[in-house]
Structures are given as structure tokens and as C-alpha cells.
Amino acid sequence: MNYTNRTGLSDSIASAVKAFAQDYDKVGDYSVTTLIDSPRSKLLTERHGDKVTEDVSDLLWSFFGNMGHLIAERNTDASSIAERRFIYKHKGKQISFKPDLLERDPEDFNSFQLNDFKFTSVYVLKSALNGTPKVEWVRQMNFYVWCLNKLGFNITKIKLHIIARDWRMSESKREINYPAQACGVVEVPIWDKDKADKYCNERIDLYIESEKLDDDDLPKCSEEERWADPNRWAVVKKDSKASNITGYRKALPKANSFMLRSDAQQFISKRKDKDNLEVEFRKGESRRCSNGYCKAAQWCNQFNQDIAPAF
After folding, report:
1. What is the mean pLDDT of the chain?
2. Pairing of strands 101-105, 108-120
3. What is the pTM of this model?
4. H or E element in which residue 178 lies
């Protein structure tokens, strides 16, 4: 991985940001955060890492989150475990992970509660408080629990400490469903043993098998892994011209975002000018690929052949 510093951050800050970014790359064969993600994205980035470039300014929020972790670690009591790197050996591979904080269960001294700190948006905080935390967080925490159980730790509870970096007091006073505070604590259910065994072993096996494959043969990323918007259908005039920018024709008012083709066809059937209208397919955007979040996109045949062509 190559790093740039386009904004001119001080060398000390830039070096610290890079050090945190490289932390997981140096320990073990796989990190838990790698195993819950797309093997195509991770392996392509690893294989072409000497050609991948990232600016340190794009890593600042992650860096601030790590600083928060360090402050919490300095104030942890002696019975807790904060920011310790663990290695679990399984199927000939070293799986590394670093829980933010393991606190003694107040009702059982021989057990721990797993705490994790997440710095995110108000939208994500709101969803978590309403009972829908990000699915990758749930998977990550339960993968941690699975590994910790294998290492002899009994985990009785998972708690996510979620901080919204874009929270505004003015919005909390004005909007009914806006979070009252900039942070919240959400408990995540611990999976049963069979579910955890199945998921974790499947992910490890997937990576072991994927490592044997050439770039173009790697498992394709799912819609979830690509952060893909759903495909939609629009109603357009038959004689209208396509935009040079989007490749699509201008949709009729309130007719640019049907989830089902049949809904668009029904819309047409109710109009007097239906003979001059037709349905146009609108491909959903894969935001992770198209907006630069995946650094391996330029070497990805799935992106270049199936996703990148706008029309």
C-alpha cells in the first residue's frame, strides 16, 4: 500500500495514521475484520498492494476512532482487558483480532462482557437504537466471541458503544426521531454455538479456497458486499433521447424508481398516453466499487465487466 498526503498533514500525524491503518496487516494470516468481508476485495487489494494508493486524509476518522480506543485503554481497571491482540490458530491459519474492551461480568467474575466502540453517522446510530445495528458489526462481534470461547474465555454479553460524529444538538431539539444524545449503547445478541460454528468455519474455508484462485476466478462480491442500490425501473417516453451523462432517458414525474417492472407497467396502463410510453431498466449503483471505497476495483473483472459500464 502506498500513501499520499495531499492536504499536507504534519509528518507525525500522517505517520501515525499510516501506522494504525497497517496494524491488522502485520499479524496472523487473517484478521476477523477480513474474514467477514469479501475475499475478492481483500485478496485483490493484497495481491496488488504495491500499486494501491490511499491518501491519509481518507483514514482520519478511523484514526480518531483508534485514539478513542487508546484513551479508553489507559483508563481501564486492572481486572479488564483492553486493546489486546489475540491469535487463534484454526485449520492451519492464524486468526488475529483485537477486542476494544473485555470487562469482568459483575455477576460472574470468571466471565467477561465484550465492549466495542464504533464511530459512525447519526443515521447508523438511529438504526442501531431502533434495533437494527449494522450486520457486519453483529458478525464481527460474534466472530470475536467464537474465537474467545475457543481460547477459554466465557462471554456473557456484547455491547456496542456507538458514537455519531455528525450529531447536532439543534437537530435533536427539532426532530422527533433524532437521537437525544450523540452516543448510545446497544446490546447485540450472542449467536448459539451451531450458528457461530457454521458461519465462522464457512468464512475461514472460503478464504482458504479463494487464496488458491486466480484474480478473475475469485468469488464475486454480493450486492451487500458491493453496497449496491437495488435495480429499478422507470417509465419514459418512447421518442425521448438518452442523456449523454447517465445513458438514461428522462422519466415521467413520480415514475423514475419502481422496484418491480410490473409496477412500472401498471403505471403505464392507467395513462391515456400509454401507447407512447415504455419501461426503462435502471441499474443499481454499487457504491463501494464505483465511489472508490474498494481500492481493488481497477483489477476486478466483476467491476470492469459487470458494474463499471454505465450503459
Report:
1. 92
2. antiparallel
3. 0.86
4. none
